[in-house]
């Protein structure tokens, strides 16, 4: 009421705003209470956080003399408060109200004694999440109470005909859990992914980092350790890991390929190939020795491949790690650190809270993390040039659980080994994550983000086409790392235009640069003066030595004169020493000033480069997408019907922009004192906010919180609907006073409703099929023709003398079914190069049809379904009231049915859309594997050619001949199979819409059947007096549940939409 005009973050209720204000102000401090004060706040526009509410409140306080005087304890309201009520006092009050949002130190200062850990963006989100989690628990408890009432034998007279259906719905919803949000991090090795994730988790090095090489070798999934929240014992593990190995069969298949590359044409093991001449074969040799230990293959030199194979496949260590009788995979669980239940709760909160509450526990946590890292190191990360056998090449993936508040709302971060992993098993795991993840982060160093080849590959046309076809282009975020590594002069030369976008910034930068240059000149001049003084000093000291020698040689009567001269020169020496000391002090002061200016200039320069990189990435990414979704080529000129349907929404919203964050994990960890002091002070930034790590954490929290909120609201609404249906069943029967024919009227209306829904389904099917026939099918068939025409030349280019592969890389790709990451040539994918021309032709049409069009058709169907429900309810209302029933009672039931059915429509179409996205993604990703499958016999034949002189030519001939032969029908068959699968997707949608019609019929019947279900149907064991008493007891129980549920709905911001606290008023 009082706060209805304030726009705040969705996680703040109006009561939250009131409490935030009153943390700083007592009610009687404010004129007319907090209402007028809130109105002033509302005039400030959107207030997006607790800090903004508080800061704006103090700004209003500064402007309002009346409030100021009261706040300062001044009796005379016309008297201005004293100067003591200033920033210092305000800072003190704000710190008291919410210190996590206040920065105490200046941005130019950093001290080992200062704590920069105050910025905790997760606080508000965690509080909101607790509200939603509690709402989920309350809704589940409500459902369990309803289930108990439904199944109680004495209550059967009221629920016997409906109990099975209600129980089934209850069990279905009780089995649902809050969704997880999966974020995959992609990027080349050594770009700072592990450092980024460490910073996000507020960990020094749970994920290892290296300044000279990439560390992460396996897929690593990071999750919150829920055991800490549920802890009830004193033996709860702080860190856990579940390490999953590949199967023995998967490793043996790869081992066969690796051994083949270590053999000569006679199939004997030869010495390790020279990496300068044959890097890929050398990599295969190294990988075998990484698994089995250094010099393993050296001991098998000259042995036949079959003998080496027998030795390696029977290795007891590998068999123990991978072997299982059932052919499954082994999993190892690693745990570290135990705490009691009270300590576990502390570990679930922000790091700053832990440091304040229990510093000793914070130190133990740090020790636990280091020990945990050592324990999992062998499983997850390469150990450089270790002599002994290593485990990480045999790992499929590793899931780590820790006390990470960032992930406490259901987030999961996945650190993928990048695009450079030649292990097929891990590559498949990584590809599965990429297909199923909710968001994708592309990580690259800021210095190379715009021009980096791997960044371009990840954001290139191929990647963008896949995002478009998946409908996932809005879920990409680009992370530019290492922003603390910058050269201000270079940035000023390159980005003056960016610097000038903010008034006065360029001038300030020039002033700082000029002052730094001036200080450098001053230091040089002082150094010259100091050197001149030093020369005089050395000369005087030499003269003093000479005087001392002369004094020893002279008679006593001359010694007195020499003593006076020596003292005079010593006095001059002391004076010069003092002057030199002053010069040194001046130089130190100037150097300190120069360092401060350089750091300030670096921070501004880094921000300018961040702005440039962000804008450049956003422009390039959007331009690339627009080029893909709006192709203008010969195909469209020849086939105008392939163009975008004018009635569909644009595939790219006008306000779409790529999300970009430019971060410095290194400076953030130093500012938060998570890195050792031996690593030095932050090099560029002075506050955690400047590193953009807190902003990125906020984005993660906001996204995961949104998923939590949706689930909590959906579950609460469903619980309310089920509760209302039960209340309806227990309501007083009106069968003795009910006019006849109502059941017949209801059934006729439901038949009309079913007919209308069938018509709606037919309309959707017609639109979808028409769009496929007019847009998608011509584009796909055109693409198949293009790939077929290019196949022979494409296959020939793989081994061409001009730009093709050398024999070792070509052979390695052939042995791996056309897909291989070569250290010499990078990513090689023969199948993709055959498939690309086809995908280029139809990707835009696929996006228009299977994403934009299908979404539009579903949205239209959803709207029509709701209108059909409203029409049916209106018709029933007219018929029932026309038959003489009480209009208020019928209106109440109509409204109840409306809310239940609208929830049914929303849930059903959400499910339909989710499944549609899954099915179309699965279908579009099946096209490339189908091409690879049809190329399979060619790879097998090419790999089996006779070895020896001319083997490369024979291999190329066989593979090119197969590509030429297969191209005649390979691409057209692939397209036909895909098009044949599209009707099944459309059928899935139509089937679920028909199922929705049946669900709505059932729920309407449950609401309105009270008018025609006769009490005479109650079986003999339930006489009327008992039934009457049972009804009264049930009404009291359900009344209590309704009141509790209304409170739950209010807490999570769900409109009760007419649901009164008692359903029987």
Q: Percent helix among the residues?
A: 55-70%
The coarse overall form would be globular
Tell me how many strands there are: 11
What's the arrangement of strands in the largest beta sheet?
A: 4-3-5-2-6-1-7-8-9
Radius of gyration computed on alpha carbons: 37 Å
Number of discrete helical segments: 34
The biggest sheet amounts to: 9 strands, mixed
The span between the termini is 26 Å
Mean pLDDT, to the nearest integer, reads 79
Note the beta-strand portion.
5-15%
Write a structural description:
The protein is of the alpha/beta class and 1065 residues long. It is 62% helix and 6% strand. A 9-stranded mixed beta sheet has the order 4-3-5-2-6-1-7-8-9, sandwiched between helices. The longest helix is centred in the middle third of the chain and has 74 residues, at 556-629. Mean pLDDT is 79; it is low at 1-14, 61-115, 211-215, 634-644 and 1060-1065.
Topology:
Blueprint: H1 14-24, H2 33-42, H3 50-63, H4 65-71, H5 87-98, H6 122-151, H7 156-159, H8 163-174, E1 181-186, H9 193-200, E2 219-224, E3 236-245, H10 248-260, H11 279-292, H12 305-313, H13 316-322, E4 331-339, H14 341-347, H15 351-357, H16 359-380, E5 395-402, E6 411-415, H17 424-436, E7 439-445, H18 453-458, H19 461-470, E8 476-481, H20 488-494, H21 496-499, H22 505-553, H23 556-629, H24 634-638, E9 659-662, H25 665-671, H26 693-730, H27 742-798, H28 807-815, E10 819-822, E11 826-829, H29 830-882, H30 887-924, H31 927-943, H32 951-966, H33 970-1008, H34 1024-1051
Parallel strand pairs: 1-6, 1-7, 2-5, 7-8, 8-9
Antiparallel strand pairs: 2-6, 3-4, 3-5, 10-11
Helix pairs in contact: 1-3, 3-5, 6-8, 6-26, 6-34, 8-26, 9-25, 10-12, 15-16, 19-23, 19-29, 20-23, 22-23, 26-30, 26-34, 27-29, 27-32, 27-33, 29-30, 29-31, 30-33, 31-32, 31-33
């Amino acid at each position: 009421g009082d706060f209805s005009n304030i726009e705040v973050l969705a996680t703040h209720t109006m009561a939250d705003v009131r409490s935030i204000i009153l943390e700083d102000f007592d009610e009687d401090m404010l004129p007319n209470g907090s209402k007028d004060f809130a109105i002033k706040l509302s005039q400030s526009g959107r207030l997006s956080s607790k800090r903004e509410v508080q800061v704006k409140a103090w700004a209003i306080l500064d402007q309002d003399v009346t409030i100021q005087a009261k706040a300062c304890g001044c009796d005379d309201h016309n008297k201005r408060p004293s100067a003591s009520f200033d920033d210092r006092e305000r800072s003190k009050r704000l710190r008291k109200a919410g210190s996590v949002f206040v920065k105490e130190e200046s941005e130019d200062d950093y001290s080992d004694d200062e704590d920069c850990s105050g910025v905790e963006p997760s606080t508000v989100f965690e509080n909101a999440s607790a509200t939603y989690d509690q709402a989920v628990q309350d809704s589940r408890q409500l459902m369990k109470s309803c289930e108990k009432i439904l199944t109680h034998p004495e209550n059967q007279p009221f629920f016997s005909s409906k109990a099975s259906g209600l129980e089934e719905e209850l069990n279905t919803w009780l089995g649902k859990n809050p969704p997880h949000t999966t974020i995959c991090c992609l990027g080349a090795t050594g770009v700072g992914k592990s450092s980024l994730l460490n910073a996000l988790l507020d960990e020094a090095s749970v994920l290892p980092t290296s300044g000279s090489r990439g560390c992460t070798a396996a897929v690593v999934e990071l999750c919150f350790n829920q055991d800490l929240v549920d802890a009830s014992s004193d033996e709860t593990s702080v860190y856990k890991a579940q390490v999953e190995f590949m199967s023995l069969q998967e490793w043996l298949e790869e081992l066969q390929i690796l051994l083949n590359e270590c053999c000569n044409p006679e199939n004997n093991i030869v010495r390790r190939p020279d990496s300068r001449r044959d890097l890929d074969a050398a990599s295969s040799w190294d990988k075998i020795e990484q698994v089995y230990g250094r010099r393993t293959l050296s001991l098998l030199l000259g042995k036949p491949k079959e003998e080496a194979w027998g030795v390696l496949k029977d290795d007891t260590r590998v068999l123990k790690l991978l072997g299982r009788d059932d052919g499954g995979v082994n999993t190892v669980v690693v745990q570290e650190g135990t705490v009691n239940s009270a300590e576990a709760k502390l570990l679930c909160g922000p790091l700053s809270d832990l440091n304040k509450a229990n510093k000793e526990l914070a130190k133990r946590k740090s020790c636990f993390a280091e020990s945990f890292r050592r324990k999992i190191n062998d499983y997850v990360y390469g150990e450089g040039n270790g002599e002994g056998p290593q485990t990480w090449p045999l790992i499929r993936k590793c899931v780590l659980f820790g006390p990470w508040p960032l992930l406490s709302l259901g987030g999961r971060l996945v650190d993928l080994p990048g695009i450079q992993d030649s292990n097929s098993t891990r590559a498949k795991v990584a590809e599965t994550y990429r297909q199923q993840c909710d968001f994708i982060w592309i990580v690259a160093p800021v210095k190379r983000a715009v021009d980096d080849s791997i960044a371009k590959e990840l954001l290139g046309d191929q990647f963008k086409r896949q995002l478009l076809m998946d409908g996932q282009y809005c879920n990409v975020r680009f992370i530019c790392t290492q922003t603390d590594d910058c050269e201000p002069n270079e940035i000023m030369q390159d980005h003056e235009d960016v610097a000038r976008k903010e008034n006065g910034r360029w001038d300030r930068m020039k002033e700082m640069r000029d002052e730094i240059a001036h200080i450098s000149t001053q230091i040089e001049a002082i150094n010259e003066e100091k050197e001149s003084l030093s020369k005089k000093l050395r000369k005087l000291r030499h003269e003093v030595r000479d005087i001392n020698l002369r004094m020893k040689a002279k008679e006593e009567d001359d010694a007195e004169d020499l003593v006076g001269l020596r003292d005079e020169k010593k006095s001059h020496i002391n004076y010069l020493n003092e002057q030199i000391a002053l010069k040194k002090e001046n130089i130190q002061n100037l150097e300190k000033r120069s360092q401060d200016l350089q750091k300030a200039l670096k921070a501004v320069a880094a921000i300018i480069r961040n702005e440039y990189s962000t804008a450049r990435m956003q422009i390039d990414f959007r331009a690339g997408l627009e080029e893909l979704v709006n192709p203008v080529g010969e195909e469209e000129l020849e086939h105008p019907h392939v163009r975008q349907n004018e009635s569909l929404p644009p595939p790219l919203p006008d306000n779409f922009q790529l999300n970009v964050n430019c971060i410095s994990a290194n400076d953030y960890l130093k500012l938060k004192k998570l890195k050792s002091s031996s690593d030095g002070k932050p090099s560029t930034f002075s506050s955690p906010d400047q590193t953009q790590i807190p902003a990125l954490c906020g984005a993660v929290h906001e996204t995961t919180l949104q998923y939590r909120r949706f689930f909590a609201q959906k579950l609460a609404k469903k619980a309310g609907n089920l509760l209302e249906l039960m209340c309806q069943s227990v309501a007083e029967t009106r069968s003795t006073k009910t006019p006849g024919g109502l059941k017949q009227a209801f059934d006729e209306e439901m038949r009309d409703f079913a007919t209308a829904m069938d018509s709606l389904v037919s309309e959707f099917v017609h639109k979808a099929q028409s769009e496929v026939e007019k847009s998608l099918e011509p584009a796909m068939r055109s693409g198949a023709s293009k790939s077929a025409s290019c196949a022979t030349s494409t296959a020939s280019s793989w081994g061409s003398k001009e730009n093709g592969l050398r024999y070792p890389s070509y052979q390695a790709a052939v042995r791996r079914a056309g897909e291989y990451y070569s250290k010499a040539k990078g990513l090689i994918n023969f199948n993709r190069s055959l498939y690309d021309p086809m995908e280029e032709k139809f990707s835009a049409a696929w996006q228009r049809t299977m994403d934009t069009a299908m979404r539009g058709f579903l949205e239209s169907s959803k709207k029509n379904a709701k209108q059909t429900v409203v029409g049916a309810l209106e018709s029933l209302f007219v018929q029932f009231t026309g038959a003489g029933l009480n209009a208020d009672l019928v209106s109440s039931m109509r409204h109840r049915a409306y809310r239940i059915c609208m929830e049914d429509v929303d849930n059903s179409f959400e499910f339909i859309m989710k499944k549609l996205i899954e099915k179309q993604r699965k279908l579009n990703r099946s096209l490339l594997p189908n091409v690879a499958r049809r190329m399979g016999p060619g790879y097998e034949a090419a790999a089996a050619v006779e070895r020896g002189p001319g083997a490369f030519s024979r291999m190329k001939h066989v593979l090119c001949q197969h590509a030429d032969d297969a191209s005649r029908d390979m691409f057209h068959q692939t397209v036909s199979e895909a098009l044949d699968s599209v009707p099944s997707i459309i059928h899935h949608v139509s089937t679920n819409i028909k199922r929705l019609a049946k669900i709505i019929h059932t729920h309407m019947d449950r609401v309105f059947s009270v008018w025609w279900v006769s009490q005479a149907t109650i079986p003999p064991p339930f006489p009327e007096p008992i039934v009457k008493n049972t009804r009264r007891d049930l009404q009291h129980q359900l009344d209590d549940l309704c009141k509790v549920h209304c409170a739950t709905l209010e807490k999570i911001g769900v409109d009760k939409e007419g649901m009164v606290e008692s359903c029987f008023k």
